[in-house]
Amino acid sequence: MKGNSSALRKGRFSEPGRIYLVTFVTCQRKPIFTDLYCGRVVIRSMVFMADNVETLAYVIMPDHVHWLVELRNGSLEHLIHSLKSFSAKEINKRLGQSGHIWQKGFHDHAIRNEEDLTEIARYMVMNPVRAGLVKSYREYSLWDAVWV
Predict the structure, then answer these.
(1) Structural element, H or E, at residue 66
(2) What are the tens digits of pLDDT across the range 16-51?
(3) Four-point Cα dihedral 18, 20, 99, 30, nearest 10
(4) Are the beta carbons of 62 and 32 closer than 8 angstroms?
(5) Where is the Transposase IS200-like domain (predicted)?
(6) Of 77, 79, 65, the residue nearest 23 (C-alpha)
(7) Whole-angstrom distance, CA of residue 90 vs CA of residue 45
(8) Residue 17 and residue 42: Cα distance in Å, rounded?
(9) Among 67, 61, 49, residue whose Cα is nearest residue 107
(10) Contact 34, 25 (CB under 8 A)
(11) In this model, does residue 59 exceed pLDDT 50?
(12) Distance from C-alpha of 112 to C-alpha of 95, rounded to nearest angstrom
């Protein structure tokens, strides 16, 4: 598995001022974020990163996170590593356990200028509805977007 993780990083370049859609997954797809407190830990971690990114939208699904951000400075890789590290410590405390919370690596997509950010955010926010978790996005607690 280690080879796959390094293959994901190969050629990765973070560009300040660029907008990225980032996705990262819990270890073994464990549905940790059915616990609202654990989801709020991830949100607090995102807020903590505010000097390095502007959060445009996010949705925290039971076993993964989608985060639409504009990178201000630093590298996306370092930012995600920091978020995962901080949130894992807090979540492990909450669950009274130790060990891995997150899968290694993450997926990122640099948004091109012609892509419609509000459509991407709308698609993200509708994930809980498409997954059958709620009937309306308004019923789901772990999302936000700057356009709302």
Answers:
(1) strand 64-71
(2) 899 999 999 999 999 999 999 999 999 999 999 999
(3) 170
(4) yes
(5) 15-127
(6) 65
(7) 10
(8) 23
(9) 67
(10) no
(11) yes
(12) 39
Q: How many CB atoms lie within 10 A of CB 13?
A: 9
Residue type, 42: V
| Order of strands, sheet of 53-60, starting from the edge strand that comes earlier in the sequence | 107-110, 19-25, 64-71, 53-60, 143-145
User: Is domain 2-145 annotated with CATH 3.40.50.1820?
Assistant: no
The tokens describing 138, both together, are 């308004």
Q: Which runs of consecutive H residues, i.e. helices, occur in the chain?
A: 2-9, 36-48, 76-95, 117-125, 127-130
Q: What SS3 class is residue 13?
A: coil
Cβ-Cβ contacts under 8 Å for 48 (sequence gap 6 or more):
83, 86
Taking the model in full, what pTM does it have? 0.89
In three-state secondary structure terms, 36 is helix
What 3-state DSSP class applies to 127? helix
| Cα 93 from Cα 37, distance rounded (Å) | 11
Packing angle, helices 76-95 and 36-48, rounded to 10: 150
Report residue 71 as tokens: 């990178």
